[in-house]
Amino acid sequence: VQLQASGGGLVQAGGSLKLSCTFSGFTLRDYGIGWFRQAPGKEREGVSALSSDGSKHYVDSVKGRFTISIDNAKNTVYLQMNNLKPEDTAVYYCAADGVVGALTHGPWAVGIWGQGTLVTVSS
Q1: Which residues sit opposite 35 in a β-bridge?
Q2: Residues 34-57: pLDDT tens digits?
Q3: In 10 A of CB 4, how many CB atoms?
Q4: At 99, which helix (H) or strand (E)?
C-alpha cells in the first residue's frame, strides 16, 4: 500500500496548481483518499477527501476553489487548486483510510500517509 504525491511548486496569489497522488496496493472502494496540509508552525489539517463511494468532501476554507477528482485507470487522485492564497502555503500530503472523518476530527486516525509536496503561494 503506497501513495505518492507530486505537483507542488511556487505560484503567485490567484494562480493555480494541480497536485497528483498516485496510489497502489488498494482501490478507492477499499479506502477513501484525501489531501491534508501542514503549514509551518501549524498542525496538519484536512483539505479534501473522496469517500469510498466517490463522494467529494471539502473543508470550508477551500470550497469553491479546490476540486478533488480521480482517474481510476491511472490510480491517481488529483487536487486542482485555483485562486490560491498565501494562506494555502503548506506541505500537502495525500492519505488514505479514515480521511473523511479526519476532515472534521483531525488527522490522528488516518491510516496511510504518502510523502508531502510543498506548495508556496507568494503574495
Answers
A1: 48, 94
A2: 999 999 999 999 999 999 999 999
A3: 14
A4: helix 99-105
Say if strands 45-50 and 33-38 run parallel, antiparallel, or are unpaired.
antiparallel
CA distance 8 to 29: 27
The amino acid at 115: Q
Q: CA geometry: angle at 31 spanning 44 and 35, to 5°?
A: 30
Whether residue 61 contacts residue 46, with contact meaning beta carbons closer than 8 Å, is answered with: no
Candidates 43, 22, 41; CA nearest to 115 is 22
pLDDT tens sequence across 56-112: 999 999 999 999 999 999 999 999 999 999 999 999 999 999 999 999 999 999 999
